[in-house]
Amino acid sequence: MLTALHALAALAAAVVVLTLPGLPTVLALRLRPLTALVTAVPVSLFAITLAAEAGHLLGVPWSPLSPLVLGALLGAALLPLRRRLPAPAADGADGVAAGEGPDGAASPADGSPATGIGALAATRRGRAGALLTGLVIGGGAIAIQALGVMGSVRAVSQTYDNVFHLNAVQYLLRHGDASAWTVGAMTSLPGETRFYPALWHQTVSLVVQLSGQEIPLASNMVMLLLAVVVWPLGLMALVRTCTRSGPVGWMAAGALAGISGAFPLSLMAFGILLPYFLSMTLMPVLVIMLVHLAGLAPDSPQHLRPSQLAVLLPVVCVAAALSHPQAVFGGIVIGLPLLVWGCLVRLHERRVHGPGPARRVLPLLLLTLSVAAATVPAWLVLRPTEAASFWTPTATPTEAVGQTLSLAADKSPTWVPLGVVMGACLLAVLLGSRTRWVLVPCASVMAMSVITRSAPEGQLRYLLTGNWYSDNFRIVALLTVGAIPVLALGIEVILRRAARVLPVLGGAASPAVAVAVVLALLVPSLLSPSAEASSRYAAAQWQTDLLLSADERELLERLPEVVPEDAVIATNALNGSSLAYALSDRKVLNTSMSFEAEPEVHLLNRALDDARTEPEVCDAVHEHGIEYALDFGPKEVGPGAATYKGLNEISQTGAAEVVLQVGEAKLLRMKPCRGTGAERPATD
Prior knowledge:
By secondary structure, the protein is mostly helical. The protein has 2 domains: 2-81 and 137-540, no CATH class; 550-680, no CATH class. The protein contains 30 helices and 7 strands. The strands form 2 sheets. It has a 5-stranded mixed sheet. It has a two-stranded antiparallel ribbon with strand order 6-7. Helix 10 packs across helix 11 and helix 19 packs across helix 22 (472-501).
């Protein structure tokens, strides 16, 4: 029960942190309820990162109050705009023009009451019920998968990057400064700073402060909230706001949010790439902005007004980019084709309707050309080095096409039934829907998925995929952003056509039929060999002891009983002992695997076990205040045993004595040693 209360406290704090700072702004913009709900998250993240940098410049200690105050100020600044905005109008059956049904389906012309799906769309309660159904099914499926691979909400991901991410949160809390430059300083030489996208760490640090819970639990609850709630809601808002879909499409978009192992499950395991994961959960909201910018969103009460778009577009873009810069490249892959398509649509309108719409073409055309011109240098200059883009292809071109059509995660087998349904939905949207723009980003991300899975190593692969380190997991995750809206819209079109042949499908039972069809697609897909392969891989990143065993975690949790607050512990980041910083709130010699440090630090990592026989090592011990060391054995999460040789053998050389042991995990106190001067004890 105590663990459940702790988890609820962290979850409640995560909800507050991800919504309250943005609430004044979305209220000032008078957005539709669903749009307000999904945009509150990126607006809150924008307020968080802005408050962090402002606090850094002004010397204001980091606390939950900072983004709340800044969020209130942003909302207050928009009050004059609110007075000029009309109250949101009550929408009709589907939020499109009166007299039309979803995607052009005819509404009853005789004034008879709507039944089934039509009745759902006609009332606020029915529309809310469709959205809630999608959230419950999709969020529930993701929660079951995620908790199944994690094993516990308190679990520590056994991955390479997790040491940095957990310790970075503690670093912000200890320094009372959440600037992205502060996070960058954690792995830099003393006195030097560098930028590191810190929005994830800023957010989790606020949850820790607000809830009083441990960092791993707070991090996991933020991750789960984003995956289980924010991601499905974003997809439903995308389909609701930017297509002519009705309740079936909205519901299907949310319900199918977890149908692919490519996202969110893969990015909740691989890496673990938490900042990039955060940026991906914002992608549906970013696509909403881009669709409106391209003039492709249908006219309806859901349509964003120009003033609303003018505020939200830069805020959402900044939030996504500062979550992780690679979101910029994802936005280019999705957004540039959308802008081009928007230009083509406007030119077609001008050809059909005459020169009247020309004034709508030129601004969009100039914008598209400007974005295209800026994309080329940004794509080439901002990408990592070729040496860093070392991920290799994992499939043949034929396999890559099959995996892409079936929305399989990287290295997962093709699931043919889902591939067939995906193909049918693509065809249904092309032939039976007026919302064909959804095919454009879908085609773009599918092409990227095929390329990254199968393109051979070389200059072409680096040119097209190097912006993501040629990392298949990161690029394939984009597949879900483009494909799930097509699936949702295609299912609605197919069911509508089927109801014309079998009228019973369009009657009072139609909502139940729609849910049954979605479940008939979702459940087998979640039990497929492709999903099982994704789950096995993800579980292997959580439910092992490669980084931190149960004994080692227990020892870390007991460290505060033995180690003074100001003591420094020599640790090996690769075997998990450096998590003493995040889990025990004790200073460690190495906070991360990759870092810059003085020569003395590298000397200690290499030869701390020789402190009693090597005077220079002893001098380094005193200079850095090393009083304790952790010996978690030779097992490591990555290569580097030679780097930490002095820590891995310290238990056998007599340089330190064991003061606390749990299983094979040991805490040692350094013994007195003789430096280049007089003999001094290791501790004062």
